[in-house]
């Protein structure tokens, strides 16, 4: 690998490949497990509410620790944290594969999430640090395509492994990839400058973790447990208390874990808000569309999976192109246009009914995927380009946090709208003479349409937040204001 270290041009792309491998594994393991949940439930004779924690524990831990990992990367170097993530993720995968009980599996998933979060939080920071501004959008676009491919092909890969080898194979497949990826990253990636004189903000990290964990737990289970249940109310109160304490600590601390002054940068704050809105809209589709395809249209899981693969499949090809284009013309126009197309795709899908032809549904999914693919790489490039070099880890962790929190909020909000509107549609249709399966199908579609209209409104709001972020100058990767087209 010494050749790659000597040749700067080769180094950038080989380092990007090393980052892409870790970037692929985290989202893949988030999507590949879902299809195996029935098999895991049957194997351990575990009820569905308990099996859900195989997924929820992974998502909650990743979302709650991303900013902590970003700060650790800024302090001790991005490479050590990234490598530690690879090793922990691989070890967690092995423990998942050998799990003797459902409780052990959930615990191993927590360990897996600790490693995956390190890779997800640090990857964009490394990419931003090694690529010059005129190539940053292209590189982050390629990295975004890797995420899209993991989401697109995860269910297919999981279905194959599950059918051929059983549910343990979906975890064991990570072992050779993890070993190869760790060795590759260790040989290729260079060490960056450390800020070891700074102290790690333990109180800030603890209060942020407790606050986000409480918030995400309440949002994830509000519908299931009841929004007025004691558990949800306590979780929301704890979230407010811990997050308020975190803000106070960060504003008064000498060496805060998260420099809240970054949010004074209008580009950074507005682009992160737009990213949150994009993922909220995106996961409204991801959460509700499978139920429509399988319960209303009676598609089998394999064919439903092909329909659901349309958006990430298009993102796979559009993201690198939009990232490259943003390097030439700037990111503001592309990001705003992408959010507008996303809103149009959401509105398109809010018009489906119980007999909408499948080509029309797939076309709407493609429009949605086109908008999302056009938006993400330029927006990510703008965020990372607005952050000083000594805060790249925090910037990267914030970006990843917006993505994961957006996922949870999107599922929670679309589920709440759907559940709230379903009884109303059922009552109206019953008054019109609908009964039985026809009543259930048409009521489902009515509630789905309402949820997707809310998602379209969120995406439309994202157009505004993208436009108001402004342009002109941004703090470049070196921390020095530079001319930009953001």
Task: Give structural notes.
There is one protein chain. With 486 residues, this protein is mainly α. It folds into 3 domains: 197 residues, Up-down Bundle (Growth Hormone, Chain: A), CATH 1.20.1250.20; 56 residues; 225 residues, Up-down Bundle (Growth Hormone, Chain: A), CATH 1.20.1250. The chain has 19 helices and 2 strands. The protein has a two-stranded antiparallel ribbon. A hairpin with a 5-residue loop joins strand 1 and strand 2. Helix 2 runs parallel beside helix 8 and helix 6 runs antiparallel to helix 7. It starts with a helix and ends with a strand.
How are the SSEs placed, and which strands pair?
Elements: H1 2-6, H2 8-32, H3 37-44, H4 48-51, H5 53-76, H6 78-97, H7 102-130, H8 133-165, H9 169-172, H10 174-188, H11 202-225, H12 230-252, H13 266-296, H14 301-308, H15 310-329, H16 332-349, H17 358-385, H18 392-431, H19 436-467, E1 473-475, E2 481-483
Antiparallel strand pairs: 1-2
Helix pairs in contact: 2-7, 2-8, 2-10, 5-6, 5-7, 5-11, 5-18, 6-7, 6-10, 7-18, 8-15, 8-17, 11-12, 11-18, 13-14, 13-16, 13-17, 13-18, 13-19, 15-17, 16-17, 16-19, 18-19
Order of helices and strands: HHHHHHHHHHHHHHHHHHHEE
Which strand-content bin applies to the residues? under 5%
The stretches of 5 or more residues where confidence is low (pLDDT under 50) are 1-6, 472-486
CATH topology of the largest domain: Growth Hormone, Chain: A
Q: How confident is the prediction overall: mean pLDDT?
A: 82
Largest beta-sheet characterization = 2 strands, antiparallel
Shape annotation = globular
- The number of domains is 3
CATH-assigned homologous superfamily of the largest domain? MFS general substrate transporter like domains
**Gap between N and C termini, in Å?**
36 Å
Compute the number of strand runs: 2
CATH domain class name of the largest domain: Mainly Alpha
What is the rounded Rg? 22 Å
């Amino acid at each position: 690998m010494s050749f790659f270290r000597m040749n700067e041009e080769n180094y950038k792309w080989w380092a990007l490949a090393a980052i892409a491998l870790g970037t692929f594994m985290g989202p893949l393991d988030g999507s590949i497990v879902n299809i195996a949940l029935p098999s895991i439930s049957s194997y351990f004779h575990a009820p569905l509410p308990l099996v859900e924690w195989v997924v929820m524990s992974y998502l909650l831990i990743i979302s709650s620790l991303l900013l902590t990992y970003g700060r650790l990367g800024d302090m001790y170097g991005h490479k050590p944290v990234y490598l530690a993530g690879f090793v922990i993720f691989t070890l967690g995968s092995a423990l998942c594969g050998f799990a003797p009980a459902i409780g052990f599996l959930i615990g191993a998933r927590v360990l897996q999430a600790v490693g995956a979060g390190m890779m997800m939080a640090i990857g964009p920071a490394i990419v931003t640090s090694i690529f010059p501004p005129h190539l940053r959008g292209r590189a982050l676009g390629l990295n975004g395509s890797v995420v899209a491919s993991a989401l697109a092909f995860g269910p297919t890969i999981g279905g194959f492994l599950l059918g051929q080898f059983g549910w343990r194979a979906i975890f064991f497949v990570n072992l050779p990839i993890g070993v190869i990826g760790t060795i590759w990253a260790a040989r290729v990636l260079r060490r960056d400058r450390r800020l070891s004189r700074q102290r790690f903000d333990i109180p800030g990290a603890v209060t942020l973790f407790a606050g986000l964990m409480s918030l995400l737990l309440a949002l994830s289970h509000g519908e299931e447990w009841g929004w007025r249940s004691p558990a949800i109310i306590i979780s929301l109160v704890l979230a407010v208390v811990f997050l308020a304490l975190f803000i106070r600590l960060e504003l008064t601390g000498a060496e805060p874990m998260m420099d809240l002054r970054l949010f004074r940068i209008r580009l950074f704050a507005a682009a992160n808000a737009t990213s949150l809105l994009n993922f909220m809209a995106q996961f409204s589709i991801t959460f509700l569309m499978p139920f429509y395809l399988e319960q209303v249209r009676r598609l089998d899981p394999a064919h439903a999976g092909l329909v659901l693969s349309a958006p990430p499949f298009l993102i796979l090809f559009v993201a690198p192109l939009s990232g490259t284009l943003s390097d030439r013309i700037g990111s503001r126009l592309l990001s705003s246009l992408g959010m507008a197309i996303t809103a149009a795709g959401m509105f398109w899908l809010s018009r489906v009914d119980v007999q909408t032809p499948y080509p029309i549904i797939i076309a709407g999914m493609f429009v949605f995927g086109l908008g999302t693919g056009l938006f993400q790489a330029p927006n990510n490039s703008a965020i990372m380009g607005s952050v000083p070099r000594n805060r790249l880890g925090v910037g990267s962790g914030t970006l990843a946090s917006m993505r994961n929190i957006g996922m949870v909020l999107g599922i929670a909000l679309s589920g709440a709208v759907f559940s709230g509107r379903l009884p109303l549609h059922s009552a109206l249709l019953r008054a019109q003479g609908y009964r039985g399966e026809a009543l259930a199908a048409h009521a489902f579609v009515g509630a789905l349409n309402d949820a997707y209209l809310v998602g379209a409104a969120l995406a439309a709001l994202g157009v505004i937040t993208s436009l108001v972020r402004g342009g002109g100058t941004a703090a470049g990767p070196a921390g020095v204001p530079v001319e930009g087209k953001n």
